[in-house]
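Box 3.1 A note on notation
Throughout this textbook, protein chains are presented in two layers. The first layer is the amino acid sequence; the second is a C-alpha cell string describing backbone geometry. Keep the layers aligned when reading.
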Amino acid sequence: MKTPRTFAELRPVLEAFASLRLAVALMISLALTCTLATFYESKQGTAAAQRDFYGSVWFGAILALLGMNIFASMMKRWPWRSHHAGFVTAHVGILLLLLGSLISLHLGLDSNMALYEGETTDRVSLLGKSLQVALPDGRYATFDVDFDRRPPGPGHERRFTIPGSDVSVVAQAYRPHVRAGEGAEAVQLRLETPRGSSAPEWLGWTESGSVDFGRSHAHLAYRFPEMAVPFRVTLLKFASEKYPGSNMAASYESWVRVDDPERGVSQHHISMNNPLHYRGYVFFQASFVEGEPMMSIFSVTRAPGLPFVYAGVAFVSFGVIWMFYLRPYLARRRGVQALRASDRRVATVGPREAPARP
C-alpha cells in the first residue's frame, strides 16, 4: 500500500512531535509540576494550587503537548497492522485519560456545602475568594479576588466596576493577619461613583457588612464565591460518635432530603465512607461543627471528564494485556500449531518428501 503524498508530507511534523526526547522532557516537567504543586498546596491551600498550577494555561499546555506527542507516536506507525493492535489501543487509552483530565480540570467542580439541621440550600461554596456587593436598587455583583498575590494599598488600589452602573467597589488596604499568630485577614473597602464615595469600612474574611450609600445602605461581603446546583438539599439529621473517654469524633453521618424539579423528592444517607452520587455530583461527608443545631459540612465535587478516564483505563489495560500477555501467548500457540502440522506432514509423506523444519 503506497503512502498518500499528503500523509508523507506530514512525516517530518509527526517525527518532531513523536520525539522520545520531547516525551521524556514532558514527563519530567509534569512530574516536577505535580511535586511542586503538592508542596504549594500544603502551604497555600487547595484553591491556590488549583489557581496557580492545575487550572493554569501552561499546565493545560503541558497536557495538550503530551497528548500531541502520544498521538504523533501512534500515527507515525500508520498504516497499522494487526501486531500494532495493543500499541494503538494503549495509546488511545492514554489520550482518553488526558482528555478526561483536561475536561474535569476546566469544567469540573470542587466546592463545599454547609448545612444546619433543618436548613435547605441549593448553593455551594467554591474554592477561592470573592467580593460580593448588593446595591439598594437590587443590582448585585460578585468579583473573584486574590489579595494575597496582589494586595491593595496606597497608590495601587483595586477597583471593581459593577456591570450596568457607574458604581465601583474600591479595595484600598489589606491586612493579611488581623490577629497575631492567626491567618484571619481583612480588606478595607469603599463604594465610589463620579459623584463621590462612601466612607471606607474594614471587612474581615467570611464577614459581611453594610456601608452608607446615598440615602440607603449597600451590602458588602468578603467570602467564598458561590454557585447554584440544579436541586435543593435539606439536612434532616446529623449524628456523630466519639471514641470512648475522649471528645474526638470516631464517625459522623448525615441524613438529607433532595428536592429535584426533574426527579422529585428522595432521601439519602451520607457517611464518611458512603458518599452520595447524584446527577454527576458527589457529596462527601467532610466535617461538622458542634452546636445547637449541629452543622454538617459536605465536600461537593463534579468531574464531567470521568467517563473518558474510565474508558481510558479500560483501553490502556486491554492494550497492555494484549502486548505483554495475549500477543506472546498467541504467537507461541501459532508456533506450536505450525510445529505439530510439520510433524504430521513428516509422518504422512515421509522425511524425504517433507519440507525441512525451519
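The first helix runs from residue 5 to 9. The first strand starts at residue 109 and ends at 116.
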